[in-house]
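Hello,

Our lab assistant flagged a job as stuck in the queue for most of the afternoon. It eventually completed. Since we weren't sure the result was trustworthy after the delay, we are filing this so someone can double-check. Below is the sequence as submitted and the structure that was eventually returned. Let us know if re-running is recommended.
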Amino acid sequence: MCSYHRVSNSTPQPTGRRWFLGAVAGALAVASVAGCKKDVAQDGTSEDKAKAIPSKQKLTAEGNPSPTADDRCPMCAMRVADHPNWVGAIELEGGDTFYTCSVRCTLATSMNTDKFLGVPKSKVKRVRVPQYLEKGKWLDAETAWYVIDSDIRGPMGLALVPAVSQEEAKVIVDRHKGRALSRADVTMAVLKDLKQRSKE
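-- returned structure --
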């Protein structure tokens, strides 16, 4: 807990070495109090600038992710390589690429790049998500369809399952229940609800 002592103006001021040590102690106390202050957003996260580190590996020529063992999801910090079937990617203009551990983290990060990547959304070149029915293939996240509320589980719990088309999304729904959403229907409110229900 942060605390400080208020010194009265009537307190005698020390001189010499005692004055110097007192001044240093006072400066440290002020710095300590200042260090306790941290702006917090309404969602409880720090307002500090994002410090996500781009991957050393770019997307392949086909636009597929190629994360290293060191890559961490910029949203939740999970090791991306531990979830190869769910890896997503956000590529910026200039080539910097960030890999994510799940479809939910991919979309949420791409919608909040200021917060998680420290860059405006206008710097995003493309966002990639895995095609669920064809392992080893990735899709443009903006044209993909998504299945929500299925019996499929991903690294973050309840999964958002990508499909190349509405027809393919219906195939997933037939096999695994749930409902199909277009990209426009996958809002931050939907992602936050999915996150909350994954904790239950």
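-- support follow-up --
The delay was a queue issue, not a problem with the job. The result is valid. Residues 1-37 form one domain. The first helix runs from residue 16 to 36.
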